[in-house]
Design a protein that fits this description.
Blueprint (H helix, E strand, L loop, with lengths): L3 H36 L3 E2 L6 E2 L4 E2 L6 E7 L4 H17 L4 E7 L8 H15 L1 H13 L6 H11 L4 H10 L3 H14 L6 E4 L2 E4 L4 H20 L7 H12 L36 E5 L6 H11 L25 H5 L28 H9 L8 E5 L20 H16 L1
Parallel strand pairs: 4-5, 8-9
Antiparallel strand pairs: 1-2, 3-5, 4-6, 6-7
Length: 422
């Protein structure tokens, strides 16, 4: 008959053996996921949005939702959306959402492609974790994108062979991968940044978290249903992206339209009682049509703060000039402001030489002359946002200064005084 002590010892041994078995099973499963994320070779290139082990990845390959990110390290909108991507990671975790990075440097961002090559080099030499550390640092320091910064950030991220990394940057060793990502991005419609493909469903721009949640939740439910019906978890992305691709209508064919002629109109904008910033004596008047909810209107505010302090005198009729002072430019040129690289600029103007001012008597004619001639020393540019004054009646602008000089006006005035006295 088994005594009490032997039974207790046997129970403890069985309990420990069971715990070890469960730990081994769970550890082996997690080990598979980790290998799939960092070390092993895998491929989902059968998908309409192909990805493979050469792409930096966050999350498990068996995650039911895959979000492919086409991004640019110099794009301000890509930097803005990083907080939303972090919120996606926190909300869903690695077991539900996999995030795949694709390089999409825009040609007008001169530091974007070198930064993409540098990031790809970090991934090639140090793996996923180092890439995402470099990725976070680069977006937090967009104004410091340079070769020296890349080397410093790569070392901090975990790249041990600094000489090999520098050599790779100089030889553009990782440029082929960046070019390949660009070509694939154009095929899937990633013509701007940031651009996202969530199980093959497109989402463009720095959208709020609710937009991402709407698409992810819908795709998560579809993917879980596919897994329940027999689809392997590591194949669900390929199947879901194919289904979503088939359900997406083909893009409309572009019509062959003739290029629009350049609009050389000089616009006379009535100011009326619109809000004004700056003195009435300013030599240049900028009329700003704006929208409080427009992100591009917000971005141009910093440019307007850099306006020149002195400029040629301009009529208060607010003549809006386009490129090279030849009107507003074509409509296509005006639409170019809708991009992260296009910021309206105030062109530099030639400054007149300041002439000494004469002391004039207090007669009415001289006083009017003084009012018409604003002091050039205190010249400034004033901004007049009149977007909400579209229905106002046109009001005539101020009278322009005559062609006669100040000295001639003064002499004529004195001559009339002498004639009246005689």
């Amino acid at each position: 008959m088994m005594n009490k002590g032997t039974a207790i010892v046997g129970f403890i041994i069985c309990f420990l053996a069971g715990m070890a078995l469960m730990y081994g099973f769970d550890h082996s499963r997690k080990g598979f996921d980790l290998v799939a994320e960092s070390g092993a070779t895998w491929s989902d290139r059968d998908s309409p949005v192909p990805v493979d082990s050469k792409d930096p990845v966050w999350g498990s390959r068996s995650a039911p939702v895959t979000m492919v990110v086409y991004s640019d390290f110099q794009c301000p909108f890509c930097s803005r959306v990083e907080g939303t991507i972090d919120q996606v990671k926190t909300t869903y975790g690695k077991d539900k959402v996999r995030i795949v990075w694709k390089n999409s440097p825009l040609p007008f961002h001169q530091n974007a492609k070198p930064a993409s090559e540098a990031a790809q080099g970090v991934y090639a030499l140090a793996g996923n974790d180092a890439f995402w550390k470099f990725h976070d640092t680069a977006f937090k320091n967009q104004q410091a994108l340079s070769t020296d910064s890349y080397v410093k950030w790569a070392k901090e991220a975990g790249v041990k062979d600094e000489a090999k990394y520098k050599q790779g940057l100089e030889a553009h060793t990782w440029a082929d991968k960046v070019d390949k990502d660009l070509a694939e991005g154009k095929q899937v419609g990633a013509n701007g940044t940031p651009h996202f493909m969530i199980n093959g469903v497109a989402l463009s721009g720095a959208q709020p978290f609710d937009k991402f949640k709407e698409v992810i939740d819908a795709q998560l439910a579809k993917a879980q249903a596919a897994i329940a019906s027999g689809t392997k978890p590591d194949k669900v992305y390929v199947e879901m992206s194919k289904q979503n691709k088939a359900a997406t209508p083909p893009p409309a064919e572009a019509k062959n339209e003739k290029p629009e002629e350049e609009d050389k109109t000089v616009w006379k904008v009535p100011i009326g009682d619109a809000p004004v910033q700056g003195p009435d004596t300013a030599l240049v008047t900028i009329v700003e049509f704006s929208d409080f909810q427009c992100p591009f209107c917000k971005r141009v505010e910093d440019t307007l703060k850099k306006r020149p302090r002195q400029a040629l005198r301009s009529s208060a009729e607010a003549r809006r000039r386009g490129p090279r002072g030849r009107g507003q430019g074509s409509r296509s040129q005006r639409r170019q402001g809708e991009g992260c690289d296009q910021l309206p600029q105030i062109q530099g103007v030639h400054r007149r030489r300041r002439r000494p001012r004469r002391q004039r008597p207090g007669q009415r004619h001289a006083a009017l002359l003084h009012q018409r001639t604003p002091p050039r020393r205190r010249a400034a540019v004033r901004e007049v946002p009149v977007g909400h004054r579209r229905g106002d009646e046109k009001r005539p602008g101020p009278r322009r200064q005559g062609s006669r000089s100040e000295g001639r006006l003064q002499r004529d005035h004195e001559k009339r005084q002498r004639a009246a006295a005689s």
